[in-house]
Each structure stands twice: as structure tokens, then as C-alpha cells.
Automatic annotation (TrEMBL):
This is SURF1-like protein. It holds the Pfam family SURF1. GO terms for biological process: mitochondrial respiratory chain complex IV assembly. Belongs to the SURF1 family. It is found in: Membrane; Mitochondrion inner membrane. Probably involved in the biogenesis of the COX complex. It is a multi-pass membrane protein. It comes from the Eukaryota. The lineage of its organism: Eukaryota, Fungi, Dikarya, Ascomycota, Pezizomycotina. GO terms for cellular component: mitochondrial inner membrane. Its main location: membrane.
Length: 270
């Protein structure tokens, strides 16, 4: 018996539907597996690939700015200290000169550094000492240190009279009356703590008459003086200095503070 076409189409659709239902299964989900663990259950652990230790070069590079900052800060502090020190010395320079007391405590001299003083007495030229060589205006020479024996109390102090050219090393080669005055003199100068030797300065050899730096205690013992150091001062004048140099008369220093202060430059450097 022949099946009508419309019923045939219906039957085919029914068969196709049953086939699809029989062959189609719902897809399995990861959560259906009892052994499955999500990222919530086990958070991810960060693992650095190719981990490498920092070498010494990187450490040194990191230390450069830190070191520069530390040195710059230190120079700022040094600048403030040096500026205050110079201001203190300049204040002492503008005060009238004081008569030098008969007895002076060596431990208290630093409190009067750069203080203007004057003393009267006779220069002991027979105990003269030369410190050098010392360069001045490109010429080689020496600083003349002579004990000053004061009248009345009989005490003696050391006087740095100034610079002479090396050709006048021997007293006999100088203008005797002016370079080595025999009469009573008045010395005006600065009470000072003299400079210290550095690592390149040779040791003094007093037995040979060789002095490379002012060891006040040593010089005082040699001459029977108090360990007091006075730097004779004079008004700077080019013609006067030239005339004194030609006669072997010591050229005294000017009454001014001569401390180096380059800390501001070092601050900008660092």
C-alpha cells in the first residue's frame, strides 16, 4: 500500500528526532569531575623564571648617588664650620692690639688665635732659626724665627719675623742694622697656633740647623723660650717689600685671615 507523501515526511521527521535524541549527550563539564580544583581552591603561585643575583657592579652603581649625597651633606656642615671660624678670627683682627702678658698658658692660645698683640724687647739673633725652604712670589727662601727676650720680666717668646730670599741665609750677608737690629724693638703681630706638618714634610733636624715646619715646643726648648708663637705683621706695600727683599730684611705677613675655604666648591662638585 502506498503511503501518502505528507505522512512520509512526518514519519521522517519523527525518526530524525528520535535519532538526534538517542545520539546527543550533554557535554561533560570540568566541575563534574570530583578531582577538579579551581583557581579559587588553589591560588596560583608566582614563579620567577631565570632568577639572577645582582652583581657587584650594580651594587657599586647604586652606592654612587648615596655616597655623593653623604659627601655633599658633610661639605655643607664643613662650610658652616669654616665660615664661622673665619668670622671669629676676623672679629679678633679688628680689635686693638693687646700687650703680651708675661706668662701665657700654651693650652689657652687657641682661644686667642689671630689676636693682635705687641711686645717689647731685644731679638736674640744668635739663636735665630730658619724654616724652609719656603716659596714666595716664585722665589725660594726661608722664614726667620728669632726669640724675643722681653725687658723687665726676662721672659722670651718666639717671633716669626717673615720671609727672606735664600741668598741671605747667612746673617752676615744681610743689611745688619735693619735685618738684625741690636737695639730694643717693639714687635706687633698675631698670636698664632702655627701650621702642622703633613705626611710629606721631613722631620726637623735641629742639630743641623734644619727646620721644615714650626715645632714650637721643640724650638722653645732649644732657645729657653715660652712655647708661644707670634707672627710679625706689616702693612702690605709692593715697593717696601721689594726694598726689604733686596737688603735681606724679613718681610712680615699682612694682618689678615688666610684660611682656605673651598667647601662651597666641593658641595657643587658632589
Amino acid at each position: 500500500m502506498k503511503i501518502p507523501s505528507y505522512r512520509y515526511s512526518v514519519l521522517r521527521c519523527q525518526r530524525l528526532q528520535r535519532h538526534i535524541s538517542a545520539t546527543t549527550r550533554p557535554l561533560a563539564q570540568p566541575g563534574d569531575d570530583p578531582k577538579f580544583k579551581s583557581i579559587v581552591d588553589s591560588p596560583a603561585v608566582l614563579v620567577r623564571a631565570g632568577k639572577k643575583k645582582h652583581g657587584p657592579g650594580l651594587i657599586i652603581l647604586a652606592l654612587i648617588p648615596i655616597t655623593a649625597f653623604a659627601l655633599g651633606t658633610w661639605q655643607v656642615q664643613r662650610l658652616a664650620w669654616k665660615s664661622d671660624l673665619i668670622a671669629k678670627f676676623e672679629d679678633r683682627l679688628i680689635r686693638p692690639a693687646l700687650p703680651l702678658p708675661p706668662k701665657i698658658d700654651p693650652d689657652a692660645i687657641h682661644e686667642f688665635d689671630y689676636r693682635r698683640v705687641f711686645a717689647r724687647g731685644h731679638l736674640r739673633h744668635d739663636q735665630e732659626m730658619l724654616i724652609g725652604p719656603r716659596i714666595q712670589d716664585g722665589k725660594n727662601g726661608y722664614l726667620v724665627v728669632t726669640p724675643l727676650e722681653r725687658e723687665g720680666d726676662g721672659t722670651t717668646v718666639l717671633v716669626n719675623r717673615g720671609w727672606i730670599d735664600k741668598k741671605f741665609k747667612k746673617p752676615a750677608s744681610r743689611d745688619t742694622l735693619q735685618a738684625c737690629p741690636p737695639d730694643e724693638v717693639v714687635i706687633e703681630g698675631l698670636l698664632r697656633e702655627p701650621w702642622k706638618k703633613n705626611m710629606f714634610t721631613p722631620k726637623n733636624a735641629p742639630e743641623k740647623g734644619e727646620f721644615y715646619f714650626p715645632d714650637v715646643a721643640q724650638m722653645a726648648n732649644l732657645t729657653g723660650s715660652q712655647p708661644v708663637w707670634i707672627e710679625e705683621t706689616m702693612t702690605p706695600d709692593l715697593l717696601t717689600n721689594w726694598a726689604r727683599e733686596e737688603k735681606g730684611i724679613p718681610i712680615g705677613r699682612s694682618a689678615e685671615v688666610n684660611l682656605s675655604n673651598k667647601h662651597a666648591q666641593y658641595i657643587f662638585t658632589w
